[in-house]
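Lab notes, practical 5.
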Amino acid sequence: MTRALNIKLMRDFWRMRAQALAIVLVTAAGSAAFVMLLGTLHSLEQTQATYYERYRFADIFDNVRRAPDARAVDLAHIAGVRKVTTRIVYNVVLDIGGMSEPVNGLLVSQPRPDEDALNNIYIRRGRLVQPLGTDEVVMSETFADANHLDVGSSFYAVIKGHRRKLTVVGIGLSPEYIFFGVPGTMVPDDQRFGVLWMDRDTLASAFDLRGAFNDVSLGLTPGANAQDVIDRVDAILEPCGGIGAYARKDHVSHATLNGDIEQLRATIEVAAPLFLGVVAFLLNMLMMRHIETERESIGVLKAFGYSNQSVAWHYAKLVLVIVVLGILAGLVGGAWLGRMVTQKYAANYHFPFLQYAITTSVFAEAAVVQFGAALVGGFGSLRKAVLLQPAVAIRPPPPPVYKRTLLERMGLRLFGDQPTRMILRHVLRWPVRSGLTALGIALATTILVAPLAVLDSAKHMVDVHFFASERQDLTVAFAQTRASSPALQAMSREPGVLQAEPFRATLADVRFGARQRRITVLGRPGGVNELSRPLAGQSEPLGIPSAGIVISNTLAEWLGAVKGDFIELHFLEARRPLVRLPVTAIAQAHVGLAFFMLHMDLDRLNALMGDGDVITGAHLRVDATDREPLYDQLKGTPSITGAVSSTAQLAAMHRIMAQTTRMTILLVAFAAAIVFGVVYNSARISLAERVGELATMRMLGFTRPEVAYILLGELALLTAVAVPLGCLGGYLLAWKLTEGTSNEMFRLPLFVTRASYGYAILVIAGTVLLSGAAVVLRVFRFDLIGILKTRE
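Output from the prediction step:
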């Protein structure tokens, strides 16, 4: 008996192979997405944890102006501190062969050979710097690769006013610089920013720090209170010019990586219900129709002695075959996609090794999700097969009772010709099934619109940042504060400089109520600046008030402050004044450094600090034809420690967005597969239910196009209803995703263009036409005699 049912199962599966294949495709897409996302998530978490542990990534960080080595002993005695590593860290300008513009470098003292240091260096090639190796460096791998440098290569650096030739002896990585760039830049640029490890005694001599340090990292014991340690570190290092300790969670590299990990987790939480709903709907729709057409077979099976359990298991196996095939295909495809995506992350985040954690638990989680959909959708329809009595099942089902629709009872006659009225009546008389079909298309539209909207938001953020807010060609940072007028005049006289705009950046602790945070205070000339300025909205520039401050929207939300509130500022440099200032405006901020920033009048800031009319840098507008002489001049200027090109930053951002575009194309393919599965199954089931009716219409003289119009018209009507709902759902999902992508580097402003909605609608319409055409071909091939024969 079991063998006979298995043969019937294979025949049933072959007969409905096209519909089953569509569901297999959707299930495979869902499984592949889960495996890809789960595998990438677990891989990033495991690689991050292993890398941090092996190379001892610190828990607390601080920078000071100059602290004697004896302070390290005081730091080591703080309760909860297990390890203290002091260093010398300085920004310099590099001259790299083949690069016309100046390059930014971060000099970091290499740990001494006998020191079990934090933030250890992973040597990829070559060796560490030899003690007293005055002209040797270990170079960060990504910087070396981007500039085609390797062990033995040489370049020049301006160190404390002296141009020195340095030789690369090793290529390395550090957990501290997984994701790092010049402070204040929008995205890291591996070609224009590199980390260089040098001999500590060499740096101490160059920067007059013998027996002292200007950077410290601390490792904590398990269970230690990070905030208590930070408070003690600040108390010890404040007399030495400490700018304030911060925890690992506020470290730019760690915060950015964690932001991406949280984004992946949020994506899984959003995607799971969507794929579950679609798969459950398709399986329910398929099995309900299949059991309805198998009424007589079910009755015969039960009449011949098959139990309810045997009949239910027979149809359950059909569901399982479809789901298992989809899961197997999805697991294989998801494992391949997951490895590819994880490798992309590894390349972006500069891991020395990749632990691709595609474990059995990842496969199990993805499989459980799809089996859950099968249980909800497919198995839910088996109850009808179990409850059918043989005597009832053997008889043909009673024909549906046609009544006037609600609109007709309200006195509104359905409009249009006869085929159009048939379409409307069929949709209205089965509202649940019609609604579920529209819901499936709407969900697919949601999945399609959301990534396109996120891509729109990223493009908009780039446009606002580079063409409305930060319009300078070059930003130059000075090694120390300089008198404003002479420095600005010197910059203006440089070749190719058309305009120079000064600024002063300093650190301060901001307090409002119970909230306190360390931020950057940026002093700018009063009024509306021409090159770099805060924005009130998407493109409206804000003027810098002569009294009061402009704070970023992110800082305002974090503090809970609004326009008109007074906030307390404790500056950490010069006289370290403590003042209360009113919030006069709130600026929109989308990029890391600007997140927790406030702007104030430059003259007012200098007056508070009490160290004269000084600046720390300048924004420059440069003649494109004279950039090369300017770059040559800046490379040899000892007072400059950094120069950031907006053009280079824009190019780096476009490279990142190209990767996002590839991921968007993948999601579009998933959405198209879902639409095809939903629409094709709906059309096939509608055709199976109405085949007798449509064949009769053909016999009555209706043409093939007219009969096909009834099927396609129903699909078109349901799609027309579903697409606006899907666009709304896509907008809401995009809002959640943009909120999820916000981290210490970016905050995406939700911005969706009409083009994205248009692309989504075109994909949906094309997929609907393709799946509808596949069904219409069957209408054109009707065997009218065979269809209209009366079944005995």
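Observations recorded by the TA: The chain has a mean pLDDT of 81. Residues 616 and 753 are 39 Å apart (CA to CA).
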